[in-house]
């Protein structure tokens, strides 16, 4: 009859359907793919902000399904991730690959590894992420999802996957991450006097008073450390390398040369002299191209090795709960101490190699006082060995 509203026809079996999902605040479109071997209804889903977006995605999905009809039926999520780890990360830093491999083994293989990639649904990925959100911080959760997305994309390029359902979901908010800490001035003084004469003492002095990243300090060579310059220039260190892929620094602004406080130069000079004497006694040739902080066999130290030795130093310095500290917090301490001393946040951002001051202010700085000064001179003033405090010892030569 005229004027009467005709109800929308319910989609028949095998047809597409579009509906509103209040829990996601999005429209969802579904295509029936029949049933799984276990008799469970199998539907491919897409989502969007509008029905028009969903209809377009459904058309694209049908095309993908037609192209991918020959995708292997028994290819699993674990196989897809393993293939990506082997084939899709060529040229990447080994540390990054190790991180992805560990995340996959811990959070993907155990939960989704056995699932057939061809039958994997967005809802299953959503449920998996919700479960991981109880264990992981938001950043780690996003990284795990990225591993899954990139693995499926790699499988798609090789005709082993029909569609990338991981692209249809978003990572939820995870657990609150562990907040970074900063050493107080008193703690810093204690730390700078612990394990004097050892390599970890020199490492801590350089990191805390110059502000280098851990991945910039570990691969540092003596050719980039400049002390006792004959033309009277202040000592400095070239921060030109890192343990990242191809040895590049984190950003373009991270490649910089930083003045060293006089105390740092004295410690590094004494440490270099000891290292040269040890090499001579062992019958080894010492060169300026050698690592500043090598292992006993001259190789690059791992982050784990440095962290373990750093915590031993913290214990000797009397720092409570040393196991809760990381080497990266030497850098947050550097920023906080400079800020408390009066350096502006813009100057500190330039010293630590940030592209802008927002990261420095929001993540690294723990104390606030915006007055302009200069980095190395400020650190010499902060740890000047004033009344009641002994100057930092470079160690016996």
Brief characterization of the structure:
By secondary structure, the chain is mainly α. It has 14 helices and six strands. It is elongated and about 75 Å long.
Distance, first to last CA: 102 Å
**Assembly level:** single chain
Radius of gyration: 28 Å
Please report the first level of CATH classification, the CATH class of the largest domain. Answer: Mainly Alpha
Number of alpha- plus pi-helical segments: 14
Query: Reading side by side through the largest sheet, how are the strands ordered?
Result: 1-2-3
Mean pLDDT: 79
The helical percent reads: 40-55%
- Secondary structure tally: strands: 6
Total separate domains: 2
Annotated CATH architecture of the largest domain? Orthogonal Bundle
Description:
The protein has 397 residues and is mainly alpha-helical. The protein is 44% helix and 8% strand. It has helices spanning 51-67, 77-87, 94-112, 122-132, 138-157, 185-192, 199-210, 214-217, 262-281, 303-316, 328-341, 345-352, 357-364, 375-382, and strands spanning 17-21, 26-35, 41-48, 225-226, 236-239, 256-259. The chain has a three-stranded antiparallel sheet with strand order 1-2-3, covered by helices on one side. Strands 4-5-6 form a three-stranded antiparallel sheet, with no helix packed on it. α2 (77-87) runs antiparallel to α3 (94-112), α3 (94-112) crosses α5 (138-157) and α12 crosses α13. The longest helix has 20 residues, at 138-157.
């Amino acid at each position: 009859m005229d004027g009467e509203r005709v109800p929308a026809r319910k989609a028949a079996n095998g047809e597409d359907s579009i509906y509103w999902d209040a829990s996601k605040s999005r429209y969802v479109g579904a295509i029936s793919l029949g049933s799984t071997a276990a008799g469970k209804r199998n539907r491919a889903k897409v989502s969007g902000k509008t029905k028009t977006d969903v209809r377009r995605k459904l058309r694209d999905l049908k095309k993908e399904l037609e192209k991918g009809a020959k995708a292997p039926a028994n290819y699993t999520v674990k196989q897809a991730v393993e293939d990506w780890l082997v084939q899709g990360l060529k040229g990447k830093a080994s540390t990054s690959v190790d991180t992805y491999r560990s995340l996959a083994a811990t959070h993907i293989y155990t939960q989704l590894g056995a699932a057939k990639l061809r039958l994997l649904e967005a809802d299953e990925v959503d449920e998996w992420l919700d479960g991981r959100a109880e264990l992981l911080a938001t950043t780690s959760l996003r990284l795990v999802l990225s591993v899954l997305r990139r693995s499926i994309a790699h499988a798609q390029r090789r005709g082993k996957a029909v569609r990338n359902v991981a692209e249809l979901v978003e990572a939820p908010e995870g657990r609150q991450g562990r907040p970074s800490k900063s050493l107080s001035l008193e703690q810093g003084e204690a730390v700078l006097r612990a394990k004097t004469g050892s390599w970890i003492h020199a490492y801590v002095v350089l990191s805390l008073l110059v502000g280098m990243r851990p991945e910039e300090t570990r691969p540092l060579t003596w050719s980039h450390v400049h002390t006792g310059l004959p033309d009277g220039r202040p000592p400095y260190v070239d921060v030109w390398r890192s343990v990242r892929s191809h040895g590049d620094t984190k950003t373009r602004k991270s490649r910089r040369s930083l003045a060293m406080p006089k105390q740092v130069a004295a410690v590094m000079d004494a440490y270099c002299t000891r290292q040269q004497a040890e090499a001579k006694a062992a019958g080894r040739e010492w060169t300026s191209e050698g690592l500043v902080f090598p292992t006993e066999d001259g190789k690059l130290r791992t982050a784990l090795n440095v962290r373990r030795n750093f915590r031993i130093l913290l214990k000797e310095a009397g720092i409570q709960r040393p196991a809760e500290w990381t080497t990266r917090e030497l850098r947050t301490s550097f920023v906080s101490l400079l800020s408390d001393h009066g350096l502006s946040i813009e100057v500190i951002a330039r010293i630590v190699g940030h592209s802008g001051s927002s990261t420095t202010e929001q993540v690294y700085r723990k104390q606030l006082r915006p007055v302009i000064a200069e980095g190395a001179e400020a650190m010499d003033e902060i740890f000047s060995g004033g009344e009641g405090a002994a100057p930092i010892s470079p160690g016996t030569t």
